[in-house]
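Dear support,

Our group has been running a series of protein-ligand predictions, and this particular one with pyridoxal-5'-phosphate is the one our PI (initials K.S.) wants archived with full inputs and outputs. We had some confusion internally about which version of the output was final, so please treat the block below as the authoritative record. The input we submitted was:
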Amino acid sequence: MSYNQKMFGLGSKRSIIREIFEYSKMRSAEIGADKVFDFSLGNPSVPAPAEVNATIKELLDTQSSVLLHGYSSAQGDAGVRGVISDSIKSRFCVDMSPNLIYMTCGAAASLSICLKAVIEEDKGDECIVFAPFFTEYRVFVENAGGKLVISKPVDKTLEADVKDLESRINEKTKAIIVNSPNNPSGVVYSEETIKALCALLETKEKEYGHDIYLIADEPYRELVYTNVNVPYLMNYYKNTLVCYSYSKSLSLPGERIGYIAVNPEMNDASNIYLAVCGAGRSLGYVCAPSLFQQVIARCIDAKVDIEIYRENRDLLYNNLTEYGYECVKPDGAFYLFVKALEEDAYKFYERAKAHEILVVPCDDFGVSGYVRIAYCTDKARVLGALPAFKALAEEYGK
Ligand code: PLP
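Confirmed final output from the archive:
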């Protein structure tokens, strides 16, 4: 075998989410899609804003093919980066510059680029993530040559645990990924937690004499259902890189558009930005989709209607807890992280499947004994699934 076995491993072993998704398609063909309660995939069910669709049409009618379908600058169109940096300035009071914005194909590309930009494989660099975490972090960190280190959450609340983080930081720690609102828990880390985390990182930077980068993975920033504050990490910590995506905030996951923003206050910001450009180049993530760069520049303040998600969250949380399930009430994202009714989450998933409920067992997310319910679906599916969830709980004697 003369090809890369690590890549073969990644390609041939489908993620559990994809596996469930394939099963769902097969089962829907057998018994009808309305009888399969598929809560596996985080694919937004709310349509993109009408303004986005109108802008696409208008652009196609009025703008040149080169602007819409040609290559942009490798780091993205300068005008588009200007609109984004102005928006960051006015929303978060950060003195952002277009020269610190790098347009990407969504958060996945942004994370891969940022990790590649800061991790030095030959130094044995490590990246800490807070469990529960988006499973692809492992792939991105290892592909950048780093070692993934998992920090355990606070019991019950699933907040990032700064004490646990402290026990895992060492001189090899180069980056920390923070994802809030969180996939899969829906938890928004409090300002108190963020302040404590940032204070710890500053102390550790001084102790070890090198920078530690905070990578804020923010695809769910706009999906928040309460009045909680989602701290903007650049306002708390100098060495912050923000990975933003329009996949969920504008329901555009298939268009692959987002950006990286480098904190202007960062030590060496312009050089880190060049490392970001170099990492983008080395990974082939240059010239993010031109049409959608232009759409974003014109729809920078557009919003999706998150009422449907809020209704689904309330319906599921209120009813499931009444049936005897345990979960943290999520403030954001569109996931409910539910304790399995037996120790083995996979066995629980199998028993739920017998009721045509498809949820994701979460051992790969770094916390065992939980399943994830993605409620970015229509309300009818949630309502249809409630009796099945009730019957499942009763089967466990609840
Ligand atoms: N980060 C988290 C926490 C996610 O949940 C996802 C997608 O579900 C991504 C990153 C990747 O998003 P994108 O579609 O922007 O690449």
